[in-house]
Task: inverse folding
């Protein structure tokens, strides 16, 4: 078994809509280690979500290849080894917290999932033990995302894809959820890919940050995050943190500054 | 905090009055109208063929009860049959146009064309095709139900948000699971909207068809009693038909509330 989980080689994506051709992603190469937490950061609409969606087999690359554990995302998806958290919690409004988390188990058929986690353990893990029978409309935005995280983990996937999961939340809630998500990630030991447009979030969460250019998206800079783990909220006030934020910001804003000059 | 405490009792009493108005407002209003009606017809001695007194309607009710209940039974049966047939066919067609663009292109303009023919005009045509009597009445009721249900249900079947469809794809759900666990629950509120429209509409369509193309039911009774100058009976049929339509609507709304209690967002 190799240590590499996700490999993208020369991946490009062009959307064709009638006569219009939009180059969303241009020649992306990257390799993500098993158990690594990486962030893709870039300006809004740059195509970073498209990269994530290719990992989840929601899009296919126009050229290049994507592999997860040596096979295609489609194969990994059919094995139900992808957990995805969207910007919207995407809970089914008529299902309780418990039943929402149980949805993947129902779809997979309980007998077919030997590695499945217990829903009660997951509720404990995401801190929603007392809300198992609540309906989504009764929860705050942050709690709904916690349910979405629990649901993404219930089939014990190999890869956790996070598409701006806390982007719609206020900063304080977001910060708490991030710290909790790191605890969960440490506990379950999963490869995680986070798409974000928040620099401090990328620094706080990841082992490496891939900075992407505006459309067509390509990786311009890779920044290793040297902060020790476990990460804490206090680290966000340390000089090393600010240094990493500054370096990421510089890489992120460079294309715009040259454009303006 | 202090502000909220001062504001609280006023808000509570206002909401009390509001709740009272909500609960008893319309019964009181209806009662007032009936009293004014009785007073006006008595005071100005309005002849019975222009406007009968409410008391005339009540006293005559017992005498006409047999005729009314027979007509009512027939109308309810015909309307129910038309409602069920129209909705079942329409739901089936909604599935067809949702999953086949070809069927959609063929059926939707035709459905719109049928919808655009006035019911008064279509009833004689249906009579020519299926014959005078119950079959025409049921067909008209079914036709009335067809379009609202088709439009609403075909919209409802596409109402599931794209990102939730993608969630099901990530989970490798089969088409059957996608339908039962996602598309159908999202379509239910649209179906109930259609049923709330078509339940009263089926009764209206039934009575219209009975009026012009049948010799039974409440619609026929209006026509028959009118030509026999039995004006009190005309009024009574109108009242029975109105209450029946209201009951049909409330029945659907009741099931909607119970079945969709968890749909609240």
Result:
């Amino acid at each position: 078994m190799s240590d590499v989980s996700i490999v993208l080689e020369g991946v490009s994506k062009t959307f064709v809509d009638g006569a219009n051709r939009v180059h969303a992603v241009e020649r992306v190469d990257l390799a993500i280690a098993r158990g690594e937490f990486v962030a893709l950061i870039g300006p809004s609409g740059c195509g970073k979500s498209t990269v994530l969606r290719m990992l989840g087999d929601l899009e296919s690359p126009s050229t290049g290849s994507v592999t997860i554990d040596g096979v295609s995302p489609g194969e990994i998806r059919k094995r139900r080894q992808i957990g995805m958290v969207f910007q919207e919690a995407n809970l089914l409004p008529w299902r309780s917290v418990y039943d929402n988390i149980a949805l993947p188990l129902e779809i997979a058929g309980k007998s077919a999932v030997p590695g499945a986690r217990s829903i009660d353990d997951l509720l404990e893990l995401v801190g929603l033990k007392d809300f198992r029978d609540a309906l989504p409309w009764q929860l705050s935005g942050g709690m709904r995302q916690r349910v979405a995280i629990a649901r993404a983990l219930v089939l014990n996937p190999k890869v956790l894809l996070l598409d701006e999961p806390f982007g719609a939340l206020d900063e304080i809630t977001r910060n708490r959820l991030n710290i909790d998500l790191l605890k969960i990630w440490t506990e379950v030991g999963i490869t995680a890919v986070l798409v974000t447009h928040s620099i401090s979030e990328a620094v706080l969460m990841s082992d490496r940050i891939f900075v992407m250019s505006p459309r067509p998206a390509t990786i311009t800079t890779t920044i290793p995050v040297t902060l020790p783990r476990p990460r804490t909220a206090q680290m966000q006030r340390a000089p090393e943190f600010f240094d990493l934020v500054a370096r990421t910001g510089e890489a992120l804003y460079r294309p715009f500054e040259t454009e303006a000059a | 905090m202090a502000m909220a405490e001062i504001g609280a009792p006023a808000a509570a009493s206002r909401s009390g009055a509001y709740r009272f108005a909500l609960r008893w407002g319309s019964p009181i209003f209806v009662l007032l109208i009936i009293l004014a009606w009785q007073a006006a017809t008595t005071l100005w001695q309005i002849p019975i063929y222009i406007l009968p007194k409410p008391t005339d309607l009540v006293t005559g009710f017992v005498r006409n009860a047999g005729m009314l209940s027979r007509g009512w039974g027939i109308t309810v049966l015909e309307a129910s049959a038309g409602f069920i047939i129209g909705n079942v066919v329409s739901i089936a067609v909604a599935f067809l146009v949702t999953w086949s663009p070809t069927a959609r292109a063929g059926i939707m303009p035709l459905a719109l064309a049928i919808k655009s023919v006035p019911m008064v005009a279509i009833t004689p045509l249906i009579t020519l095709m299926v014959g005078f009597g119950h079959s025409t009445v049921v067909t008209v009721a079914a036709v009335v139900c067809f379009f609202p249900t088709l439009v609403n249900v075909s919209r409802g079947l596409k109402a599931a948000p794209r990102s939730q469809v993608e969630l099901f794809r990530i989970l490798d759900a089969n088409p059957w699971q996608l339908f039962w666990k996602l598309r159908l629950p999202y379509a239910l509120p649209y179906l109930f909207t259609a049923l709330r429209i078509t339940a009263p509409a089926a009764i209206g369509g039934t009575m219209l068809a009975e009026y012009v193309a049948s010799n039974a039911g409440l619609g026929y009774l209006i026509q028959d009693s009118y030509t026999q100058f039995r004006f009190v009976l005309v009024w009574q049929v109108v009242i029975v038909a109105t209450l029946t339509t209201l009951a049909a609507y409330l029945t659907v709304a009741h099931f909607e509330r119970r079945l969709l209690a968890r749909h609240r967002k």
